[in-house]
Amino acid sequence: MTFFNTLAAASISFLAAASLCPGKDVDWPAYGGDRAGTRYSQLQQINKKNVGKLKVAWQYDTGEGRGDAQTEPIVIDGVLYGITPKHRIVALNAATGALIWKFDSGLEGRGPNRGLTYWSDGSEKRILVGILSFLYALDAKTGRPVESFGKGGRIDLRQGLGRNPSTVSIILTTPGIIYKDLIIVGGRMPEELPSAPGDIRAFSVRTGELRWSFHTVPRPGEDGYDSWPRDAWTYTGSANNWCGMAVDESTGVLYVPTGSAASDFYGYDRIGDDLFANTLLALDAATGKRIWHFQAVHHDIWDRDFPSPPTLVSVRHGHDTIAAVAQTTKQGTVYLFDRRDGHPLFPVESKAFPPSIVPGEQSSPRQPLPMKPAPFSRQLLTADMLTTRTPQAHSWALQRFENMRSQGQFIPPSIDKETIVFPGYDGGAEWGGSALDPNTRVLYVNANDVAWTATLTANTRENSGRQIYLRNCAVCHGDNRAGAPPQIPSLIDIGHKRSEAYIDSIVRQGAGRMPGFPILKTTEVSALIDFLVKGEDKELKTASSSRQIPRYRFTGYKKFLDPDGYPAISPPWGTLNAINLDTGEYLWKLPLGEYPELSTGLKNTGTENYGGPIVTRGGLVFIAATNYDNKIRAFDKDKGRLLWEATLPASGNATPSTYQVNGRQFVVAYATGGKARPDSKAGGVYVAFALPAK
After folding, report:
1. Which one of 3.40.50.1100, 2.140.10.10, 3.90.226.10, 2.40.160.60 gives the CATH number of domain 3-379+422-450+571-690?
2. Which band of pLDDT confidence, cut at 50, 70 and 90, is reported for residue 679?
3. pTM as predicted
4. Which sign does the torsion angle of CA 515, 75, 177, 142 carry?
5. What is the rounded CA–CA span in Å between residue 254 and residue 198?
6. For 638-660, what is each residue's pLDDT tens digit?
7. CA-based diameter of the chain, in Å?
């Protein structure tokens, strides 16, 4: 093993090594367990033999009800740090769940806020966390803002992106990552224009001063500039890191996956490959300088973001041990690269695909596909895969399917005809990330296996309440305002559920996966609300605030569901997979989750799931994630056998954490309720499990 590989392997397990001392406190100090993103713990007090005895040790109810915070808590020195549905920050006694302090920024956050970041130089201890468009630095002991950081303890992430900050929407849904005295962040941007560029930025953890910025939409003279139209950097946006990063602390290399460029589905104004969108970047963590990159989707018109943080691993190929980075995709595939130069460790082939027939669009003629490991989600929907849940559901699905295009990956959307996207826009893999056992080099990844559809339609130049909705909101909620629950809520009868003031704040600030629309004029927001609440289609005399109205627009994220609301395809609809990264072969694969009302007649369906797994030296894979059954489960990591399960107060759409305090190991899950059905139980409860105290 080379010196490089020895250090890289050591960096993965160093933080957890102390847990081999049975009575010692053991932290879960970072999002993903460590900065390598392994979601692995050396703890083994809870193991295959005794996991069935796990009981609730404590609960902390945030008191804010259901939300979609999706938080994976961190634990340092016996204190658990988490986030509430409204984005207050809490510090809890990790042994008892008792509240130590709570920080309220005065801003009411909504939607995803997946974690926090911890930094210490030995004397100072800080929690860094995003709330809406701001990055806060809090004293870890008191929860008070660190006044010397930015302005009054926070920095405004809308600043410094080369756009008017008052028209920019950026929210830190996934926490940044620490490298030495830097906090490095990406951010979530709108899927449609106008959207700010997705710069990767490093700030001083002490002062909030910007140290470096990497332009994912290159500017003149920068690498990748020629893959865009000449002036694209002045108007296009996104190509952002919203899902998290990993850093190899021994070599100082940062690994950053990025998403698609705006607009997602019609790229007439960004013709070219669009580097560095849909790219795994290897950057010098100290300077932001690019070391290597791999673009997984050229000129993305399918919203095929890299959806999850990368995982650092040392694998055995032949007689060599190689420091590698694993990256999962929405397409349901895994890439494995040599960390030093980005060379794929399994074959990747460039394959030809049909061109777009949409006027003005120029899709890429070729796309890369990894040949190994085999995909963990199905790749092509055929008629024999349609639902047989009932004869009526099958007949309905077959009739719909016969009017759709289903040809597999990278088939360009067409105008006014549905194209199957399978797996759907939410994966395949998602933001919860993968868990890695560094001892066996097995990667555990959960996946969705549900079909969605894509359709483009012509835009109009009118500027009315309805047209404002169609141009800005229908991309998610659909032309019919029905959305795709539970991920994207319906807006039908929204006026009976929410006040006009609430809707106004959501439109301006964003919520859930929805970005804010600060670019809209007051008159446009008013006309939009009149359309949503009263059905009035008020015509405006002023021109649209959009930079340019494209000729075509996306008609909304739509799942292929049967009339009863279940996936219109055969199960499994969600899976948990174990993949040996040495060989690229599957150790096991199983359905994950169930619909309680179907479990007596239709078993092993799996369900959509959000939030990833963790793996322990005790031989266990813990995962909650499933949308409808409110379960957290423990599986035998070697065999895939279910060894334990418990019911949470609500769906646990977040990745668990595990830690040890006072010699006792805990597993904690956040029951958010965020992806469950609208009529499901309220969430916002942290639940910790442990073996019965002796």
Report:
1. 2.140.10.10
2. confident
3. 0.91
4. positive
5. 16
6. 999 999 999 999 999 999 999 99
7. 74
